[in-house]
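Methods — Computational structure assignment.
A single polypeptide chain was analysed. Its primary sequence is given first, followed by the predicted tertiary structure written as structure tokens.
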Amino acid sequence: MTIRVLIADDEALLRMAFGMVLAAQPDLTPVGEAEDGAAAVRLAADLRPDVVLMDVRMPGTDGIEATRQIVRTCPQTRVLIVTTFDLDEYAFAGLKAGASGFLLKNARPEELLTAIRTVAEGNAVVSPRITRRLLEKFRPHIPDAAARARDERLSRLSAREREVLVQVGSGLSNAEIAAGLGLAEATVKSHLGRILHKLELRDRIQAVIFAYESRLIQPA
């Protein structure tokens, strides 16, 4: 299967560099370039790429708002935030907007390629532990209003599913959760799938964010 990638960045040289790296791979195809967020939204709607490489700082519509719009209008398209900054408010905002992860622009080409393939498969690039550190750092910016939805949404989960969600929110892998709860790893994966379905979440990162926003777990 060929993964179709849209590149959104206001720097022409970076767009060209990303495109050259992608074009050299037999399973990746660059299908378009956008120099700002508004163009990225338009091209995503027209081209329906599998993955969008999204810069954050762009003129006009920035990458965060563009991510939010693409996730809403093109639910099958995954967004990978590519940022200059590590563990800052841009990464947090991108994950909140629905991105499936973020990567630094100084990442090695092989890291970029792996990240694109991982996101295209529906998985998250950012590890749960990194996501947790983001949430802990920017915990004051999470609105209290989100907690009011806790009882209604958490009531959809069984006791075991809630227990698994706590472990996911704490940054544990499926293997670590399985060992801690005395379950098979495949069982944990099934529980996580049901959690995502019941809570209408896209991926593991969104589950971690929900666990914090709902006050199911508290930052250290």
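Note: The CA atoms of residues 13 and 192 lie 40 Å apart.
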